[in-house]
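INFO  loader      accepted 1 record
INFO  loader      residues=294
INFO  predictor   begin
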Amino acid sequence: MPRRFSLLSACLALGFWAVAHPASAQLVPHLPQVDLNKLEQQGLGLLQEATQLAQFQQFPLALSRARLATQLAPKAPESWAILGSLYLQANDLDKGIESLKKAQSLDPRNAAISFALGSAYFQKADYSQSINYVQAGLKLKPNTPGALFDLGNAHMMLNNPNEAIDSYQKAIAQDKAFWPAINNIGLVKYEAGDANEAIKLWKQAVLLDAKAVEPKLAVAVALYAKGDRAQALALGESALKMDSRYSDIKFLKDNLWGARLLADTQTFFAVPKIQATIAQAQSERVTQPETPEQ
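INFO  predictor   done
INFO  writer      dumping tokens
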């Protein structure tokens, strides 16, 4: 990544020079004019570098550029918004929220900033505050599928199943192929004891995206619990070979799997054939080099 020359260091140098050589009463030194527009453009250029670095998981470098960008372009809301997002990705939630609120103060009608704050508070497990910010964003930009999905997730964590389903259905109404919302309605239905409806929804999600591991594994677990062992084992092996992260109960819990489904999953994972599949998938994952997310 080519480095851009920082005018901030030049300004600091001028400041130190002025201290070392104070002006006398008879002579006022000539100081070069600082072009604030150029400084701001420099800051926005650093923001672009920061986002590119973040795409390749280079978060320390991305953060350093984003922090400098806020100094060079302190009135640009995007500089604070990107810095806040990077802090969230680095799991520094308090600094992320602080930066996002600064961005919001500069651009209060930007729905994306409200949605980002909703996500930040969700990560802090402050689900009520998450709902407040997402709803505020939806007032500015209604019918946003991703935000409606996030709203459903927050309601789900607060054990508001009806509100969660309502939000997921609104997301699906805006995007018929939005399988994560369909998947999560299945999660709600399974916890309510309606396994048949959950299986139907998860199968629908898999039809929308054959690479969707989560609903495929959920179908496998539910079928195994119902006694359909052969089909369950085949689906479960296929899903776990696609992404071994789903063999981790904590990972599933983080993806909002409820107590009933998790208990059935632990039973499923205890099957020797599935244990062998998990061990092989995890071993292959360790030996394969990680590729940066695009």
